[in-house]
Amino acid sequence: MIWLNIVIQGALVGGFYALFACGLSLMFGVLKVINLAHGDMAVVAGYVAVFLSPRLHIPGLWSFLVVVPIFALLGYVVQRTLIQKSIDRDPFTTLLVTFGLSVVIENLLLEMYSANGQSINIGSLIGESWHPASIIYISYVSLAVLAAAVLVLLALQLFLSKSGIGRLIRAVADDQEAAQLSGANYRHVFGIAAAIAFATVALAGIAYGMMTQFAPTSGGVNLLFAFEVVVIGGIGSLWGTLVGGIALGIAQQFGAHINLSYQILAGNVLFLAVLAVRPQGLFGRRSSLA
Amino acid sequence: MSTEPLFVAPRARVKVRRSTHSPLFTIIGALVLVCLLTVAPWIVPAQFATTLTNFFILVIMATMWNLLAGYAGMVSIGQQAFVGLGAYATLYLAIKGMNPFVAIPFAALVCAALAVPITYLLFRLRGGYFSIATWVVSDTALLIIGTIAVLGGGTGRTMPGLQNLSPAETAHFSYLATWFVALIVVTGTYVLLRSRTGLVLASIRDNEVAARSAGVNVRAARRSIFVIAAAGCGAAGAVLAISQPFIQPSNEFNLQWAAEMLFVSMIGGLGTIEGPIIGSIIFFVLQQSLQQQGAWYLIIVGALAVAIALWQPRGLWGAFRDRFHTELLPVGHWVEPGESGL
Amino acid sequence: MTAALLEVESLTVHHGQLCAIDDVSFTQHQGEVLAVIGANGAGKSTLLRTIAGLHRPTSGCVRLDGKDINDLSVSRRVALGISLVPEGRRLFSSMTLEENLQVGAYHANPGPFNIQRIYELFDWMPNRRKQSVWQLSGGEQQAVAIGRALVANPRVLLLDELSLGLAPIIIEKIYALVPEILAQGVSILIVEQDVSQGVSAADRVHCLLEGRTSMTGTPAELTSEEIDRAYFGAGLDAPAVTSGVVE
To answer: Do C236 and B7 touch (CB under 8 A)?
Structure first.
């Protein structure tokens, strides 16, 4: 029963991790950019939700309807300006710029909001859970987040495989020059991919804010998890991201079970183990590492 | 087929040379500076010595980061792993009875030794994934050290072996130790980059495939640089532990070190020796003047680093160097077109 | 004389400090097949890539229909009718045959070619449309690459090293398509290392040696000896040997 609970809790948090990670995976797959500010974007989304909800008289639960489109637009703009400029220089610069942005964002948030935790008020929903068996409690919020993650990944998969723009995105990810030669305006395609990535990370940030408290520095640790998910699941595979998320979640729950302070460590160990034994991840392609 | 030469375009004669002016100027200037800095603790107020200590720690870390990123092309945001490991190695040796100052080189060696197996993991990744993986390594080291009770666990403990010194003496000696380590690290890096290894590194940085086909063992070169950078950061961690003798994981393994190393190198200029030093000066000036405003100095430094990365990627020193064609510590080569013109 | 479609004038292109193309000029006319031949490293691919917009020239210009296109992006040039089939095919490896064509069709100009037409041109394709392209043979991949470029309805099709890595019989089959493509009003610029194929398919031949024009002319006017000399550069001290009509 204890093991079942570990697996279930791990899967629940894994859904969140996957939602968080798919933006990172998309940005890297298409733009070949590692956005080190990815985690902080989620936190910013959380703060924006906290800021806007009372002013627009929206209950916290529905704040994502406003925040996600804002972030999609933000993603497009940021990509066409800052990120494109760094890509035009070299991959080096994108790392340095996104890292710099990450530090700036975190410290700006610290100045504006202090280090205290915040969360998105969803009323009594936060405490409610389903209690199917003795020690197993499945919180409704976590279940909703897992469902959202699966839905988003499904929608993204469909979009990428069936739509014209989705095909363009995949083409640019495969071979940017060849896509250009086929008439694609790659900067615009990059913008769309970034918009999707920012939208998903905003959703993840709001989900995070509902499940737990966030603070200006929460972005860092979540970036770490998102990255571990992408590597474990496999670079370039959306379903790999889901599996990776669940694997990380379960590993962490297992670590926590042994000793609460081993939770993050257990995840790191899984990551390092995958890196040692199968660096392309569970579902990844060998070539996509370099 | 005739044996006449094919299209032979007139070959331009080129000259290849090092610095732009007599090195005597640099050497004398350097000697004067070295003497001044060595006697500094006795001629400046005490808190200035502490500031200088922190300054030199940053110079050490930035120089090592610059070696990794600017020369070997590896962007690490996990060097704080070795800062922390160096600090804790020093702590461990001090607990075992060694004088902390004596422990500094040993701490550096420990970090170098630990770096070797780490490269076998890390080098499986490239680019941004390599970078985040360095951070995972650092995070893991932090977590592991945090579980070791004798080293203070998560809460930390003080460094033994310094109790018999007065606070003023501790400040003076830790300053001297830091200054000498910085001197060794910067001089060593300069010598390294002027050597054949420096040329090898520049060739890898400029065009890895070409370097490989010219016979360069790229992987081995990268590995040795990573190990050297680990040792340097380990030494920085050691002197950090001595100068701020309450050791705790959240301080020694702080991601902020990575941010500082990175910003400072970017602002000063990647790929130059002077860059990290100049960047550190700017950083400290900003930090001292904005001290009252909390985290604002870091925001400004970060924004400055981002702006420089986008618009002036060679950094402030790089721009100065390009404009005025001077170098204080030349490590590159100038190729000048000869008489027949290109 | 038919209208000048594509003009390259005094084009000089550098890769960093290396001069890849040095003062090359030629004109391609509507309905013409122009072959640019030369040894490895002669600058042929760089030439095509510059025309397509992937490289910026150091000096000189490229004109389409008399208009200077130097400042136009790659996608703009595709919209104006320049399609490059790149060296090495460069298909989208994670996608199927049909998806590759669909990407090409997304920004297509109006014209005679669409996916259905491509399926008629290559009758083996409809059966394999759902296959991943990495499962196709070299010759089949080359066909898909050509199809992907054609489906955009270009006015001039640039073919970069079609025969590289392919068996002679496959090369012949691909070159057999040239007349059909021409019949639809598409002009073709072929770059080849394989001299015999390039010359036999062409209306005019332009030879590059170390980035410079070493010879131009029609296949009828040029002896194989002259072609050899221009190709390899042996026995040449003057920059160019021209015979036949020079534009």
So the answer is: yes
